[in-house]
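Researcher: Here's a chain I'd like modeled. Treat it as a single chain, no partners, no ligands.
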Amino acid sequence: MKKLIIIVVVIVLALGFSSCNQDSSDTLAQKEIRDLLYSISTDFNLNQISPILDHLHLDYLHKGKIGHHFNIDWLNYMNRFSLLDIEVLYIEIEGAKAVAHTKNTFRSAYETEVHNEPEDNGEISYFYRDNGVWYIYGNQQWAKKGVQRALPYVAKQ
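Model: Modeled as a single isolated chain. Structure tokens:
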């Protein structure tokens, strides 16, 4: 009877520690994605596209657009706006994929444009972890199908 109690306690403790590891790895992943988004905002504000493109995965695909289109779109944003502020609301993580829900505010002397992501566009909302590094990955869909939902994206692995 005493051995049974010890075995049960060991199993409970092992399960507890394994769930703590998952929480800490999710927390670390969220921090890494927040840092990546902060880096994008900083590079945008410095008018530097190359460091932003360094965060793009080679297989980037978002609503039918590949990395080349991303480059053109973000150069256009840089021509229109001088500042980008990214407020991270929350991040969903499932394995090697993640979706960041953000409020992106683009500003210039003449106009302000706010994107609630990923609902409005989602260009920098979908991430994939490749060889220990998070990259902007896109929603991996060839066609725009209206508003993209985060959970169906995360469920596909």
